[in-house]
Amino acid sequence: MAADDRILEVDGISKRFGGLQALEGVDMWVKRGTVHGIIGPNGAGKTTLFNVITGMTRPDRGRICFEGRSLPPMSPHQLVPLGMSRTFQNIRLFRDMTVEENVLVAQHSRTPTYVLSVLLGTSAARVVEAEARRKAREALAFVGLEAKAGELARHLPYGQQRLVELARALAADSRLLLLDEPGAGMNPGEKLNLLGLVGQLRGRGYTVVLIEHDMKLVMHLCDSITVLDHGRKIAEGPPATVRNHPDVIRAYLGKGAGSVA
To answer: What is the DSSP letter of 249?
Structure first.
């Protein structure tokens, strides 16, 4: 793979929490414009890896490169303007804010509006705010929730709250989206819709890295997959290769893996 094809590189990442080795020498490359899955049993280190990539956890060793740039220690809000955003395994919406306000939070992390200009209602602040609202509505329209923009987030069904998180990540103008179990708690129809949305994102040039336990969704959606077990990478490659890898079958998929299609 050519260096400029790699939007994300994980190089030798290790992380220990007390007596637990959560990650040990994990390497991973993600090709630009693809959907890359991270799978493995509970406790494999998947979310810890996401947390390291997005600055929530500092690794003991290793480095993260984004678009060819080795990233220094950064907090998540500092990564968003660079073009990287994420969702969480547990929904993290502001429940007493509207759907649109939740999505606007992502835009405000990037806009150069200053508090004084907002208080004074300057024309520059109004232009920035209007553009932020346009992008928020565009993101909500993409996930099919534009009509829900004025509703409080807590009134939405669980599956729609997940989509608000996706819209918020999109509104941040990110090129790399990291989705932590985006299909968790969704019914089959909602998962089918999610599959279509992520496929459209890939078609629009976004890169998506996702953690997901629904193997049918992973196998249908992902271009490549990294498999973790007890903090180590045990396999990587296209879905067909990973599905038939003996270590993956033994550690995670089980003997019925061949039926996952």
So the answer is: I
